[in-house]
Design brief:
Blueprint lengths: L6 H26 L2 H13 L1 H8 L4 H22 L3 H17 L6 H10 L15 H11 L2 H16 L1
Helix pairs in contact: 1-2, 1-3, 1-4, 4-5, 5-8
Length: 163
Amino acid sequence: MFGLWPGGPHLVNLLLHGLCSLALFWVLFRMTGNVPRSWVVAALFAVHPPHVESVVRVAERKDVLSTFFWMATMWAYWRYARSPGIGRYFVVVACFALGLLSKPMLVTLLFVLLILDYWPLQRFQPGPGDAGNGRSETWKRLVMEKVPLLGMAAASSIVTIIA
């Protein structure tokens, strides 16, 4: 794609890392509404040595690419959590699948989504359809909606172990 010019792959990694940093800021800002804290977290992410090393080393494209899909999955999940629907859930599944294809480490994202459900999305509050034990019903519902993602993560883990 870039011929013999070695700067091309580095430029692509830099662009992806910049998009990841901006996406992290955007997702955190949309979830929390706090600009200064979101900016600080995104800035620390942008200059964190392991992330910068992945940008510099062309052979580490999988890290930069999987991080991009991690952020895309979090953004899609935030949208789905605000207004659930099958189309929005499909976007979450697609972003998660692309992330798993980039790097199997994204299996840990499922736990992050559960943490996001608790805070800042506050989805553990009993809903209008929940019975007297609303918290346990809400917990079950939130875990059940992640079963397709868990299946994909399990399949990815099995393939990774075999490989």
